[in-house]
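Submission sheet (multi-component)
Chains listed below:
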Amino acid sequence: MNHDYADLKIRAVNGWRHGARREVPHFALSMAERQELARLAQIMDIKAASARIFTQGGAAAHSYLLARGLVRISYMMPDGARQIVAFNWPGDLFGMAEEGHYVHTAETITPSRLYCFPTQKLEQFLLENPKIQDRFLIKITHDLRQTQRQLIVMGRLDVPRRLAAFLLDCAAHEAYFEAASFTLNVPMSRYDIADYLGTSVETVTRALTKFTEQGVVRRLSPRKLVLSTPRLRQIAGLS
Amino acid sequence: MNHDYADLKIRAVNGWRHGARREVPHFALSMAERQELARLAQIMDIKAASARIFTQGGAAAHSYLLARGLVRISYMMPDGARQIVAFNWPGDLFGMAEEGHYVHTAETITPSRLYCFPTQKLEQFLLENPKIQDRFLIKITHDLRQTQRQLIVMGRLDVPRRLAAFLLDCAAHEAYFEAASFTLNVPMSRYDIADYLGTSVETVTRALTKFTEQGVVRRLSPRKLVLSTPRLRQIAGLS
DNA sequence: CGCAATTTTGATTTGAATCAATGTGAGTGG
DNA sequence: CCACTCACATTGATTCAAATCAAAATTGCG
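Outcome: structure written.
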């Protein structure tokens, strides 16, 4: 046996409600399933940050499963404004094309490892493996709900509340949140956060300053924040 | 043969880009597939507008496929603010639960016909019918992209632009848009539009007033609008 | 026809965008 | 090793779009 492909996992069923579930469960893909999937894939290790994986408008040849690292999915408007549509954490799927072309741009935020699946082959494989196809269906359904949730955040919360919800989302990922000390290692820049929350860097900073003044967040450094998760939950107020 | 279930269809692959495709293509489900699916389902006809189909937080027993009519999917915040997450048109799927509970509320906007699938049975059926499962996967992927698109609209467009994008979305549905006269029959209230666009009724009206002044929209009545689709596309500016 | 809900218009306030600087810190090369 | 630099982050001042509060108009329905 060469590998057990332990990092080939699909993230789903994380909490709609903040505070409910702590760490995000992953699907239990069986060893056999992982090996079959891995056979289709090419593994890609990217050391650089801000490395382009694919570009909005480009011809789509692959779908991706993130094994390690962090990836941002963004859309560039004709006027140059950028909207980040999602941050992808290990176990997330992305690169599902529309009519043969990518709709978004994907870039690494930290060094990352990807499983790259040739689109055609993957489609064929899923048709022949209903159980794995079912996992994919559940995963996409989960992603749809996450996106709907973000839509609610954007539609009905002011920036401080959006930021509170976002910090809690980050804190759900153990790799970046030291639960013992409540310290969050913010992996992305203020620009990324602003473009995800549909606001500006300045406004993100001001929201953070406000949290600091209220004692909800303590800044060890710009990228190291001690969070009071209960109060953040209260502020975000999504149940 | 009792029925050919011609209204059992799945809407997908509509345009990311405005103006590209006109009417929305539907999957060609074969007669056999439609009949098999229909066997699982119970047909529900709802004559009333604003009739509740399911409620946020309720136990989820069914998934739904809309055959006729219009349905809004909304989320109510603890403070009473409402965000409409999607409008569902014929061929749309909804009611995928999370951990056995509905996350949103679904209500009719116009009289509607629904195919109701018992969650368990549907799941089992899809596992046994990879080809139909594949259709579902494509459909959910499509819905995910639509929602991501709406996220971009909310994150990066001001209210007039959001409204322009929304009117174009409505105009893509032939049942509500008379292409010859460019007349849109707006089926939902200003409240619904505001709650979908993350704004207030007043602001929606003001945006519409601005369009009227600019000659982009002519109001025959509050719910009958003559659109200049090219200029709306220009305003929305999503490519 | 009249009433109630819906839609529109008006006045004021407010949160966030924008414009403008300043501060901070990690990495580089002298 | 320190100074220099550049990207990132924060703070401040001003402007502006949209929320909110308030009222009038309209419309479609019973």
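Remark: The mean pLDDT of chain A is 92.
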